[in-house]
Design a protein that fits this description.
Elements (H helix, E strand, L loop, with lengths): L3 E5 L7 E2 L9 E5 L5 E5 L1 H13 L1 E4 L5 H4 L10 E4 L4 E4 L2 E2 L1 H29 L6 E8 L2 E9 L8 H12 L5 E6 L2 E6 L4 H12 L7 E5 L3 H7 L4 E3 L5 H14 L1
Helix pairs in contact: 3-4, 5-6
């Protein structure tokens, strides 16, 4: 029997913050801890989700940890999910034990460096114009990565650029990578990777073969690698991935 699995990012792919939406006809899609809606679907996103649901089994593939994932209002009836940028694989609602142990080992190795990064970013954030919230993201009790988030009200596009340059100039990032998208800057251990998690899920758990179809959907360059693990790839037209391709094509035309 042919199977179809759709590995899809969530934020800025299936739903977005209100200020990023162009439609007035929005439905709540995810909540803050206090229960207030923070992300919404547009009519086109809702139609897209409906089509995906009819096509096959949706596998959320997201940087959200289990706490923020549980505050997503969309229903995903499938058996699997990839969380925390690939650090966690859920199977039937619980972490897959072998992958969890691998992530636990990485977390123990990088925990001191994550704490050092947090201290550095908090110090440097005092000297940029925008308001930056810095924190370590945990999942299932494991410190996984550092996130610097610029508030919507003070977002200027430059403050995170300054922090990124400071990181590259003054911090040892061996074994780690920086991801930028809109008002977020995150620093991850290389081991926490959506592509590696998706490939493990496909090969070791799902046991996909030539009769099965996999589709990858994402908006950012952090998603690009896991899209290459799928048979077909889809990206929103107004996304970091498409913008990157457009800039490359325009450069080659010159």
């Amino acid at each position: 029997m042919n199977r179809v699995f759709i590995f899809t990012d969530l934020d800025d792919t299936l739903f977005s913050s209100r200020w990023k939406q162009q439609s007035e006809y929005l439905h709540p899609a995810a909540l803050l801890k206090d229960g207030q809606p923070v992300s919404f679907t547009s009519p086109k996103q809702r139609l897209f989700i409906e089509l995906l649901t009819k096509m096959g089994e949706i596998v959320p593939t997201t940087a959200r940890n289990i706490d923020s994932f549980n505050r997503v209002l969309l229903q995903f009836p499938g058996r699997y999910a990839v969380l925390s940028n690939g650090a966690i694989i859920l199977q039937d609602g619980v972490p897959e034990k072998n992958w969890l142990q691998k992530s636990r080992d990485t977390s123990e190795q990088f925990a001191p460096r994550l704490q050092q990064l947090l201290v550095f970013l908090e110090q440097e954030a005092r000297f940029v114009p925008a308001q930056i919230n810095n924190r370590i993201i945990y999942d299932y009790g494991l410190p996984l990565y550092v996130l610097s988030k610029c508030s919507r009200e003070t977002y200027d596009g430059k403050s995170l650029d300054i922090l990124e340059e400071k990181l590259k100039e003054q911090v040892d990032l061996e074994g780690m990578f920086i991801h930028r998208n809109h008002n977020n800057l995150a620093v991850y251990p290389h081991t926490f990777d959506k592509e590696a998690a998706v490939r493990y899920l496909q090969e070791e758990i799902m046991k996909l073969d030539e009769n099965d179809l996999s589709i990858g959907i994402g908006d950012s360059m952090a998603d690009f690698s896991f899209l290459t693990a799928c048979d077909f790839a889809i990206a929103p037209s107004r996304s970091q991935i498409i913008s990157m391709f457009k800039s490359v094509i325009q450069r080659d035309k010159q």
